[in-house]
Structure formats: structure tokens, C-alpha cells
Amino acid sequence: MERALSWYAAAYGLHSACLRYFNAAGADAAGELGEVHRCETHIIPLVVESALGTRGPVEVFGTDYPTPDGTAVRDFVHVSDLADAHVLALQRLLSEKKSFAVNLGTGRGVSVLEIIRAVERQAGAVIPWQPGPRRPGDPPALVADASLAQSLLNWNPARSTLAEIVASAWRWHQRLPRVEA
After folding, report:
1. Residue 67 is inside which H or E element, if any?
2. pTM (two decimals)
3. Which residues contact 63 (CB under 8 A, 6 or more apart)?
4. End-to-end CA distance of the chain
């Protein structure tokens, strides 16, 4: 898609901003807008739902990765930080009239077990989890290099600590109607 957009810019002069999200997570500060899917696959909502008793134990896909605790490491970025990046990207497009593509992440990875522990701290409860097999093709760690977003857009994620992401997701999920697991 990025190539097609560059060709379109060359042919028609319409410029674009490609924002490559890493793992978007969290909810708005007021807890009014958040993430919920009928068939949830994202780790933070899965762990929060388990803590709230609306889901059973969390399955951890792979506990033998070459990472500090053996679980996969990923880069999570708060949805509010992503919204800020969109505004900055639009401002740059309007002022520079030049296409660009940037990674949006924190440059810091957190493991699946770190997420479980963070939700446990937020919930004040132990979250049941069970080891499962690695998913085919999953790398041990996937972390963004967002230095280009920082230099081009002057973007720095301000709300993307694991504690802030988990706290906002927790507030959002607490507002949802409960359906037992």
C-alpha cells in the first residue's frame, strides 16, 4: 500500500502519511471509549476480562522464547498517543506537502507475563493463566524504532507506560456490562 501511495503521489501530487502502529492499546482517559471485540484476541483486554471474571484463564502462547521471562515481548502504544500522532501527521502534510511513513511505538517492549502482572496490580487479584504452544511465525520480540516519528513529527508517546495503558483499559472494561465466562 505504501508503494501504491508513493506512485499516486508521483502521478497525481497527492501526498500521504503512513502511520505504522505497533500494538495499539488502552482507552480514553475518561473511560468512555475503549476496545471490545466479540472474538477478542488482544492480550490486554483478554487479561483484563480474566481479572473481571468474564473470561477464564489467559492462554500464554509460548513460554520458552529467548526473552527475560520466556514470553513474547511486544511494543504497546496508547490510543491517545496514536491520536496525537495523527494530528501531527496531518499538520506536517499540510505544511510540508511531502509524503512520509513512520513507525508509531514506544521503543520499549513488555512481555506477556509483565502485562499479566500489571493487570494483577491494577485489579488487586491474581490472574489465572496457562501456558500454550507458540503461535507459528511469532517472533520472540517486536519493538518499534519510532525515531523517525520523533524527528519528523516531534512525536513522543506521553501516555504509553504499561501502567497507564492497563489503568485506562481497566476503567473502560469496568464500565461494560458483565457477562460471566
Report:
1. none
2. 0.91
3. 70, 71, 131
4. 39
